[in-house]
Amino acid sequence: MQTLHGTNLYLRALEPEDLAFLYAIENEESIWEVSNTITPYSRFLIRQYLENAHQDIFEAKQLRLAICQKGMEEAIGLIDLFDFDPVNRRAGIGIIIKEEQNRGKGWGREALHLLVDYAFTHLQLHQVYANIGEDNAASIALFTTFGFQKIGVKKDWICRNGHYFDESLYQLIQN
């Protein structure tokens, strides 16, 4: 897969030129919670990751794509399929728009639409899911707009600043 095109943006494979962007995202402590990260990543490790990004989803069990505005090459965010399970035909979805000023503009909605369509149409998945912190109203609104349903709550799942927060599991099943 080279790119997935939408009206205002496109999703593309990661390139070596995305090193600085990935380095900035992976080392942004405020989003470590959503990526289950607790330590910074070096440029060396991210460069190694990019060198192996050519693996297909059946080999890597993950597909990470850059979210780019039409006419622009640099990424504004990332969207992932993770825990890809071709036997049970399911995968998790995660999305991040890096800069606060780019959030709430519909980029995430369009990117999610493209990836969900790709997952169901090209990968023949039966279901996709998202793990969302109970206090992440923007993500809950985004995923539920697409028909994702809350199917469970993981109590005290996230520890932030010594306090525990619930995380919910949202699921979208292809009919």
Describe the structure.
With 175 residues, this protein is α+β, with helices and mostly antiparallel strands. The chain is 28% helix and 35% strand. The chain has a single domain (3-173), classed as Aminopeptidase (3-Layer(aba) Sandwich). The chain has helices spanning 19-26, 32-35, 43-51, 57-60, 107-121, 137-145, and strands spanning 3-5, 9-13, 63-69, 77-85, 90-97, 127-133, 149-160, 163-173. An 8-stranded mixed sheet has the order 1-2-3-4-5-6-8-7. Helix 1 (19-26) packs across helix 3. The longest helix is centred in the middle third of the chain and has 15 residues, at 107-121. The two termini are 25 Å apart. InterPro entries: Acyl_CoA_acyltransferase (IPR016181), GNAT_dom (IPR000182). This is N-acetyltransferase. Keywords: Transferase. One of its GO terms (molecular function) is acyltransferase activity, transferring groups other than amino-acyl groups.
Please give the alpha-carbon distance between the first and last residues.
25 Å
Instruction: Give me the count of strands.
Output: 8
Q: Quick check: average pLDDT? A: 88
Q: How is the main sheet built?
A: 8 strands, mixed
Provide a count of the helices. 6
Rg to the nearest angstrom? 16 Å
- CATH C-level class is Alpha Beta
CATH architecture: 3-Layer(aba) Sandwich
The residue ranges in which pLDDT falls below 50 over 5 or more consecutive positions are none
Q: Record the strand order, biggest sheet.
A: 1-2-3-4-5-6-8-7
Protein name: N-acetyltransferase
Pfam families: Acetyltransf_3
Domain N-acetyltransferase: 9-171
GO molecular function: acyltransferase activity, transferring groups other than amino-acyl groups
